[in-house]
TrEMBL record:
<feature type="domain" description="Cupin type-2">
    <location>
        <begin position="91"/>
        <end position="146"/>
    </location>
</feature>
<dbReference type="InterPro" id="IPR013096">
    <property type="entry name" value="Cupin_2"/>
</dbReference>
<protein>
    <submittedName>
        <fullName>Cupin domain-containing protein</fullName>
    </submittedName>
</protein>
<dbReference type="InterPro" id="IPR011051">
    <property type="entry name" value="RmlC_Cupin_sf"/>
</dbReference>
<dbReference type="Pfam" id="PF07883">
    <property type="entry name" value="Cupin_2"/>
</dbReference>
<dbReference type="InterPro" id="IPR047142">
    <property type="entry name" value="OryJ/VirC-like"/>
</dbReference>
<dbReference type="InterPro" id="IPR014710">
    <property type="entry name" value="RmlC-like_jellyroll"/>
</dbReference>
Amino acid sequence: MAVTPPRVVTGHDADGKSVILSDGLPPQEHPMHGAGVGADFLEIWSSAEAVPSLTSTPDAEPSLRPFTIMPPTGHLIRMIELCPPSMGGRRTVMHRTRTLDYAVVLEGEVVLVLDDSVTVLGPGAIVVQRGTDHAWENRSDAVTRMAFFHIAAEFSDELLAKLPQPLDLME
């Protein structure tokens, strides 16, 4: 990552007072970074629980789970830097996930590719991604930084009746 954002995790001490448990880059033990990928994924936090249990301290480091685009349950937050073509960046494959995603463009410019259109997004743009087939592409000369909030979801019967079967999901 060009700029490594700190992750500050709070918790509680033995007396129930609020404290900082960690401050810095979360451990990253996955292959999703570098020119071969065309992007850098920074796993920030995740929980398999739909409604997370708030404890004094977390049971384990959530960024050390095996990498998946989205775990089968729960939610996660990650930062992604999409490289420009000059740094190995390329369009992602068209993909669909079983998630509700909030994607926030923090820096740079990115193209959201859908089945019927493309939309150029700049800093401050927020995409509410609702299980649609899509791709991302950085066509600029600079790195694009985005924050993604992924929440496990389910397709309604009404929508499943319209989608191609079998449903090809990226997980």
